[in-house]
Amino acid sequence: MTIEELYREMAQEMGPQPWLKPGTPWAEKPVEIMLGAILVQNTNWRNVEPSLLNLKRVTGFDPAKLRQLTPTTITPLIKSSGFYNRKGPAILDLADWLGQADDDLSRLKQRDGASLRQDLMAITGIGNETADYILMYTLDHGTFMVDTYARRLFGWLGATMPKTYPAFQKQVLGQFNLELADYQEFHALIDEFGKQVKNDSDFATTFLAGQTLTC
After folding, report:
1. Where are the domains of the chain?
2. Contact 78/46 with Cβ under 8 angstroms?
3. 145-197 pLDDT, tens per residue?
4. pTM listed for this prediction
5. How far is CA 58 from CA 29, 63, 134, 154, 201, in A?
């Protein structure tokens, strides 16, 4: 099967998936999604929720109020997420970056996705996955996220993929061109599949067993 056929089959078998997007009960504003993407690194969502509640209480997820925080004052707010000495400065630098665009996300969305990604990657503490998540779920630029679940799924399907994130992503994106909502849905499907299917034995019982991915 092709990568697009993989997406279509997963969508048909698994149905629509929830995303972290504005309007859902757990994501009121795009900035909240951005902060969550940073805070969830190397931890689980249970540890992130208290941090987000603290940030909401103090700043309301207003970038201007985030910019009033310092590395010292943000630390106790996000301590539950761990790695706060890295995540705190990343959040403050992200808020500064938003300020350069007058905190206008509609203005940022009009920019080229590659240049936005370059800006995000220049922030210490934001790597490939986090940058792509922010791009896809808050700035309306579709892409393919190369996370652990994606690597594992492609391996089960017999695809030999590059080891580096950029090369893997480039190879995938060269095979198809989807709409933004499809890119968002594809990532959500892959992650949900990965949470349910954890080993070779599990995969052997799924609807994708016996399939081969060509890319």
Report:
1. 3-18+144-203, 30-138
2. no
3. 999 999 999 999 999 999 999 999 999 999 988 999 999 999 999 999 999 99
4. 0.91
5. 15, 11, 22, 42, 47
DSSP codes of every residue in the chain: --HHHHHHHHHHHH-------TTBTTB-SHHHHHHHHHHTTTS-HHHHHHHHHHHHHHHTT-HHHHTT--HHHHHHHHGGGS-HHHHHHHHHHHHHHHHHTTT-HHHHHTS-HHHHHHHHHTSTT--HHHHHHHHHHHS--------HHHHHHHHHTT----SSHHHHHHHHHTT----HHHHHHHHHHHHHHHHH--SHHHHTTSTTTT-----
Closest C-alpha among 49, 136, 124 to residue 89: 124
**Considering only the top CATH level, what class is 30-138?**
mainly alpha
